[in-house]
Amino acid sequence: MSNNLKLKCTSCHAHISTEKHFETDTRTCDTCHFINTTKPLYAQNKKPISDCALCHGHVEKTKDIYGKIFQHEIYEKNEKIDCSDCHFDTIQGDGQVDKRSCYQCHAEIADYSDKVPDMHTIHIEKRKVACTSCHDPLTHGWIKSANPVSGDDHPQQSVATGHKVQEVIMMGMGGVGIKGEPDPMYLATLNCSACHQDKQRFALIEPKVCNNCHEKGFDKILVEQIRFVTSRMRLLQRLLAQAKRRHNGGTSQVIHEAEVNYNLIREDGSSGAHNIKYIKYLLDYSITNLKQTVK
């Protein structure tokens, strides 16, 4: 970490338990590597110290997703894919300094307390103060939660976008009449930002981004899927209107199910991209049933 912060041995190796004289305080690792700074910190190889590959080496992992073998190493070599496209929500906390922490040691806060280099020189170089004494907690690792698909303790699948309908669709849930399956993107723990490049709204998508993970030409398949789902949604809307005009006691359940599926797909807004197989089956189910009622 030359030309960045000057650390002491005790910055990383601390006396934190009675069992060992010195041991590595991993909280310090997380604070230095993942804190947001206006000036990036670099390792000796000139890479940012937040670079995943500094700690995480080659991963020989395969996963069967609906009969297709996912190989991690293929995506490691793909320069168009970032680790965060699949591994997300891995940092909790911001590691910032709350000035109230200063009062643990000081009666008054110095005027130069906003000058980070001075603070580090005094506290780390001269006084060997532990990073965690001043910085708020910051941890690195996947959040564990109950997987609604498998029921197992599993890394949390969704980024905190507030787009709950989209998450439900990707899990193969939310509709009626069809038992769905999770989309391969969900099983691969894909992050929203892997496809949606507009980081602010997670709304716009350029179909060519599909080719980053899929075979070349998959973007054209996506466009065809969107056209197909859009056409089927129009048909479902027309059939719903006809069924409501001919409504009788025996068609209430069919109409209700069709409305649930129609509203779910419309609110999802992906026109099938989030789980094409599940959305296609929901549309087929509702359209077939409605056609029976409007004969």
TrEMBL record:
Cited PANTHER family: DISSIMILATORY SULFITE REDUCTASE SIRA
Pfam families with a match to the protein in the record: Cytochrome_C7
Record keywords, A-Z: Signal
Domain of life the protein comes from: Bacteria
UniProt organism field: Candidatus Brocadia carolinensis
Protein name in the entry: Cytochrome c7-like domain-containing protein
Keyword flag Disulfide bond: no
Keyword Signal: yes
Lineage start: Bacteria, Pseudomonadati, Planctomycetota, Candidatus Brocadiia, Candidatus Brocadiales
Record domain Cytochrome c7-like: where: 120-215
